[in-house]
Design brief:
mainly alpha, globular, 7 helices, single chain
Length: 137
């Protein structure tokens, strides 16, 4: 188990990775995440952050592979479905993206705190499918 100093360093690195993502410095964020994973190989939050950097670099197969491993280790992590949905959405896999965003919504269901962003992503996926494929009744 990591001591307090190690945790402080990890939090600092995590903050640096998040800051790099906000600045759209995805390669820098990726390097920070990979460094953190060496120290904490089973940390799924770091894996989620790494997948985020990969998705925004259009490295979908790497992101999908990483997320699949996270999903295999814990199917209850809502964030995994979120990032898998983002990856599918960016690849134009609208039906898959909608399904994953719906799973995310179910996993994060809270009547006091509706996740509007997830619903908007799901609705956008349906809209893209309707434009591309038409409405089948």
């Amino acid at each position: 188990m990591a001591n307090a100093q190690d945790e402080d360093e990890s939090l600092s690195e995590l903050g640096q990775a998040q800051q790099a993502i906000r600045k759209k410095e995805f390669l820098k964020a990726e390097h920070i995440c990979r460094k953190m994973l060496v120290q904490h190989p089973s940390d799924n939050d770091i894996k989620h952050l790494l997948s985020h950097t990969l998705i925004f670099q259009s490295r979908f197969s790497e992101a999908d592979s990483l997320l699949k491993k996270v999903l295999e280790s814990d199917t209850n992590l809502a964030g995994t479905y979120w990032y898998m949905g983002l990856s599918a959405e960016r690849q134009g896999k609208n039906l898959k993206a909608v399904d994953l965003f719906k799973k995310y919504v179910v996993k994060t269901a809270n009547p006091l705190n509706v996740n509007v962003s997830a619903w908007l992503h799901a609705a956008s996926g349906y809209r893209r499918m309707m434009r591309k494929e038409g409405i089948n009744t």
